[in-house]
Every structure is written in structure tokens, then in C-alpha cells.
User: What shape does this take?
Amino acid sequence: MDLKVQTFAVKAFVAFDMDSSVFEIAENLAKLKIDAAPVINRNGDLFGIVTRADIIQLIASEASLKGTFAWEVCSHELVYVSPDDTAIEACQIMRDRGIHHLVVGTVGDVVGMISSMDIIEKLLDPDVAAALLRADAP
Assistant: This one.
């Protein structure tokens, strides 16, 4: 069973322009039922990541969701993993950094994103669980 990050990574994901309003992002995250999305700059390069937690903090500060932009609330410290890293290594990085989302690839070559929930959902898939049990059998 291949437990590499590339097996778990989301390759097709929505990204937001750095000038998108937080209101627009919140609307889309809710509609798509996702917890985070990358933010890109004017050149199309990855600029940061905005999460539901970022939006909740903004709401708690009573700032305007429509008057605040992605670049103002997104996390700029992006953590990258290789597609060939194992899911366990990705989990350890997320645990050690206290984060739930990783960028898969390199600064110049992003191939996807992975979250702690992506890994959990994949591991709960009956076919994956059965394959893991077979792999662990003596």
C-alpha cells in the first residue's frame, strides 16, 4: 500500500486571489465544504493560505468581512512536503508545527495540498484500511 503524500494530496483545489474579500472566501469555503484554500499573488504564485480559523479570528475582532482582503488574514508561513514523503511524515510535520494543511511540491512547483482530514478520510476508506491490514499481516 502506497502511503506517500501524493496518494492523499488534493490535486484540484480552489485558490483565491490575494485581493479577494474575506466575505467572498468565507462564502466559497462554506459552499465547497472545505476548511482552507491557497491565496495567490498577482503573478499566480502561492502567497499564503487562508483557513476557517483565520476567518473566525477576523469575525471575533469585529472587522468587516467585506472590507478585509485575503492578503491581510492569510498565513504566510507555508510548509511544503514532497509528494514522495510518507503520510506519516506529513502528520508528524503537522503535529510538530501545530498546523492542519501542507503544500505538496516546492515553492516553484506546487502539485497539490494535503490536510490532516485528507489523510484521515483516506485511512477510513474501507479499501485503504483493508489494504493496510493486509500489508501489516505477517
Q: What stands out?
A: The chain has a mean pLDDT of 87. The first strand starts at residue 16 and ends at 17. The chain has one domain: 5-136. Residues 5-136 form a domain with the CBS-domain fold (CATH 3.10.580.10).
